[in-house]
Amino acid sequence: MWDWITQNSGGLSAILNAAMLAVWIAYLQLFFVSFRRSNRTVIHIGMAGERNGDARCLVTNMGSDTAYVLAVKIDLDFGEETRSALVTDRIEDDDPLGGDFREKTNQGPLGGGEVLDIGSLGRIVKRAAHRTGEELSLKECRAVTLTVLVAAQQAHQMSGGYKRYEIESGDDGEMCFRSEDVLTRQIHGRRQRHELRDMITA
Predict the structure, then answer these.
(1) Is the pLDDT confidence value at 51 over 90?
(2) What is the pTM of this model?
(3) Using H for helix, E for strand and C for coil, what is the string for the chain?
(4) What's the pLDDT at 35?
(5) What's the confidence (pLDDT) of residue 79?
(6) Is the per-residue pLDDT at 42 higher than 60?
(7) How far is CA 95 from CA 64, 105, 128, in A?
(8) Quick check: 89 and 103 in contact, CB under 8 A?
């Protein structure tokens, strides 16, 4: 046995080196995938408080790195028609003047694990009406979709998420917002990112 190993030491050494190389490649691949996953920006959209038009819309950065909120978009489904508008800036008449810039806009940095209150659904629809110049009402909507676009990875890439809420009538006759998705769908497709970018720059 020893003689056979000695005679084939060159081939065995090559096999062992190849096996060691394969192990290191697999290890580095696993490390790279884990690193990318831990640094990936994940946006979560949720509601707090009431489940009617006064419900607060919350945006959370679930990633570890800071992301910059570029835009907030709302899509109002009226059945046969849909209205879309950017509602990033807070244009309510009763908003305070001056002070923190976040009192007038939802744009800005959002650190890892931080939460941003972008306003109540009723206020957000008012912003959409102001943007479109139309009379828009939640009472006539079937569903609402909120989309948040952010600049991630030191502003080298756009990312974001969106969630759709169906509007139902509660037992007391008030509107109730329910989403089939517990989690927020992430924006990864290049085409979707380009469409949102074009909407922002239009």
Answers:
(1) no
(2) 0.75
(3) CHHHHHHCHHHHHHHHHHHHHHHHHHHHHHHHHHHHHHCCCCEEEEEECCCCCCCEEEEEECCCCCEEEEEEEEEEECCCCEEEEECCECCCCCCCCCCCHHHCECCEEECCCCEEEEEEHHHHHHHHHHHHCCCCCHHHCCEEEEEEEEEECCCCEEEEEEEEEEEEECCCCCEEEECCCCCCEECCCHHHHHHHHHHHHC
(4) 54
(5) 83
(6) yes
(7) 31, 11, 16
(8) no
